[in-house]
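step 4 of 6: structure.
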Amino acid sequence: MYLEVKDVKKSYGKDSSFIQVLKGVSTGVERGQMCVIQGTSGSGKSTLLNCIGGLDLMDSGSVKVEGQEIFGLKPAALSDYRRANLGFVFQFYNLVPNLTVRENIQVCEHISENPLNMEELLETLGLTEHQNKFPAQLSGGQQQRCAIARALIKNPKLLLCDEPTGALDSATSRDILVLLEQINEKYGTTMLIVTHNNSIKNMVHKVIYIKDGRITKDYLNEKRIPAAELEDL
Amino acid sequence: MSGVLAKRLLRDLRQNAGRYFALTMLIVLGVFLVFSIVGAAEVVLVGTEQQKSQNLAEDGSFTVFLELTDDEIRTLTKDGTEIEPQFSFDLQAEDDAVLRMFRNRERIDLIQLDTGRLADASGEAVLEKGYAAAHGLSVGDTFRAAGVRFTVTGIGSVPDYDAALSKFSDTAVEHNSFGLMFVSDAQYAEIRDQRGQKAEEYTYAYRLGSGTDDDTLKQKIRDLKFDYTKVENRYFQETIDEFLDKRREIEDGVRDLDDGAGELSDGLRELDDAGDDLNAAADTLFQSYLDQANAALAAMKQKIELTDENYADTLDTLIEATHSKDLISLKASLDSIAEFRSGIRDYTDGAAEAAKGAAELADGTAELKTQTDDLLDEIFDLDIDNLTAFVPAADNPRIAAAAGDVIMDRNVGLVAGVIVLMLFAYVISVFVVHQIEREQPVIGALYALGVKKKDLLRHYITMPTAVALLGGLIGLGLGLTPAGIRTQLTGTYEYFSVPDFPIRVPVYLVLFAVVMPPAISAVVNTIVINRKLSQPALALMKNEQSAGSYRQFNLHTKKFTRVFAIRQLVRESRSAAAILLGMLFSLMVVMLGMNTFLLCSRIRHDNPADTKYAYMYLYKYPEKQVPAGGEATYVKTLSTDCYGYTLDVTVIGLENGKSKFFDAKPEKGTAKAVINNSLVERYGYAVGDRVTFSDSAADRDYSFTVTGICDYAPGFTIFMDLDSMRELFDEDEDYYNAVYADHALEIAEDRLYSVTSKADIEKSAAVFLDMMWPLVITLSSAGIVILCVVMYLMMGVMIDRSAFGISLIQIFGYRPNEIRKLYLNGNFAIVAIGGVFLLPLAKKIMDLLYPSFIANVACSMDISFMWYHYAGLYLLLLAVYFGASLLLVRKIRKITPAEVLKNRE
């Protein structure tokens, strides 16, 4: 198992404000798989993603990526873990506004030991002609492409996407999903996608449903539909 | 809604406690700095005025040769002027000190006691507080003066000896060696009657009546009849005698001439009177000869009678007839006697004429004598009156000296205040802009929900304004503690002899402390928030950054860290500008302290270093012969204007344009002078410039062409060729009034106005630094602390603004030192490069302003920096930066990746 999650618990607050968001979540994702985590607001899907990404500390349990345990790592080690293994794509792109497209991608290229070829990546993501533009000069789709390029430049083992189409219209969402699919095929990148969108589950290898901090469904999608053919995006 | 909003305030305070604390510190420090410095100066200025009023300070004083009579005092006080004798003796006290003994005062310059009571019995005395402190004397202690043991009954001060200078010409107060004591009338008389005391000084203090002035009183004193022969000072008499000798010589000559003419006239008159006898005798002699001839002719039986009229013709006839040799001989004898008689007649006629002429001559010389006396009265106008000194209070260096001294402090403090306010205004504007931008979505949401603009305005103004008010109040409170105004007053109280003034702070300072900070905060906030609220609510909620928000330009460098740092710098240009402005303002405050330190320390060094003489003797009554070993010069005081203050300019005449004590080589010429470097530093004069100074007493200006510049730091001084100076100021060709020497000369004390030694110069030069030290420390330390606070605040703002970016790159796996490099190295570049430009800029600004701070002091102004001053301050700047960075790294560490998950850029 490339990603192995075991009995992860996470809570916030104390006393009357205490809330347990993850109540012992266990699952796993194989290398090269695209996996969707679905659930309603407050179900704990983003918290699970953050715990896997080392952005949030879990109370207990275990998260292993390629056999490396991240529970109990100190912030510096977590930082190195993220640096070596992960790529992140966010709903609102989170590009550095005063850097150009190319420079935004360089942010991650700079700390990567074996980055992908910048020109090729730009070409793959259709950003070559936009590489010297600033985020504010781009459309939402272009910005998300840039965010994906930034995440991919490190050639991460695991790409974590938090609502990657959440801020995009239907057509653009499809474009982005097609792109992710292509990347998965081209680079064999394992992807974990958190989404509300019910259609996206159809294009991925594995689907996890989470409700009130517990996994209610966890299955492999045997009938994958190419992203370009997804409906109701 | 405003009630609900108000609940956010405390949360906001808690959330940004560090920043509000730093902001409060900035205000506290700024207000404390200004309040302490200016407050202390105002306490002295106001206190001096109150003391003068309360203790009936004199309008001036005058000293006379001979004690005024009651009639004379009545004449002088007819117009309502009040006069009180303040006679004094200088008594030899212990430790080689001199105590000037006065009677208790009743009407003018009253003694203000800090403790104890006035002396009212023999053996009791009140001591001036500076002397008492220097000698460790308290009420009840005893001391010895003029061989008499006194008990200290009180310790205090008088308004006419703020600066307890023994002589006006003294350069510095020395409480160890000079002080004042006040005794009862009886005790005073008792000491006066002792033998062996120096002469009593007949000094009178006056308070002018309404409608009169100093000049009128002075003229009245001059108009009093004065018998200078009663003056006992032998040098005074010697000078008078010397002056009158020339008159006496002329008078004696004219008198001799008159007497001679009289004698001549008398003699000739006598001669004239004797002329008739002489003529009669000559006639008798001739007649005798005729009688003798007639008798001889009768014996010869000649019936001829010779007379005066016929003897010549008769004898010629007879001689022709007889050819008698006797007759020829007789005729020759008679001719001879007739000729003699005729000669006598001519002589007596001439004598009569001469007698008449001599009488006229005598009349003439008598008239000459009378007219000569008138002429001599006019030429040798002694203009001697009873006055030896007339000193209006404004010209008295002892009076209100402390007030004069603190004017510089006040000027410096006020400028520091303006700088601090500007700094505060800028910092708070950056602060507020940052906060508003951070809360844009909240503001937008509230705005959209219908919260009124004025409510939002009030909400966002409240906290910074309250913090500013609190900071102002704390600063004011600290200023009132012993660390504030009282510390600034320490130097004044140690040096000057003034009462402990009550701490009364002027209204404008309270307003500065309490009103200005919140007012500035409110105004800046209002402007910024108003601008923000002019955007649509939706734009605010979306926290939209337009494409134009960031400067779009391409960078050619391929090095990512450099690209990132440049982009970051440009993005944070406003905060960067705030850091730079903060650096500039705080460096200006530091420069103010540094300039003051350099000014004082260089005066302390340069004044003694440039003083090559060991003694300078300024004469009241110059000797005919220059004392051996001395270099005679002519010293005169002119004046110049400096920002409304009148400052003395000393003119020194050098024999043949050279001196072994001054490096100046003035050329001959009544309009040529060499000026000292103090004038160059203060007025920017250069060789070839035309400079003009005034003689206020003569109401005349003198212009000189600068022919050279001399390294001589003490005061404002110009050097002239001695002969040219004598000619310019209409003095005799051998006149001098000052002697410089490299060793002590034996010159009678009574001849001199003053003796200034090199040691005096050293002491007075050191006083500058001693007095200014608290100001230097306060300004420098406050400047540095303000620099720290501003740098921390502004860099903190930059970090806050970058929190999202930092959080983001943390997610990507950046390590803390990589983050520091990306986000703080740009700041280092700002500080490092900015420092290179701002240090000289701050220095330049302060150098331009500085002359106005010392407008009332005639001194050199060498405040130039050496390379190591710049280097030291630069290192300090970097140290402050690294200190602030160290704190901010902790701040960066506190930023978690979760930021990115909560916020959006």
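step 5 of 6: annotate
 - The two ends of chain A are 30 Å apart (CA to CA).
 - Chain A has one domain: 3-13+21-229.
step 6 of 6: archive
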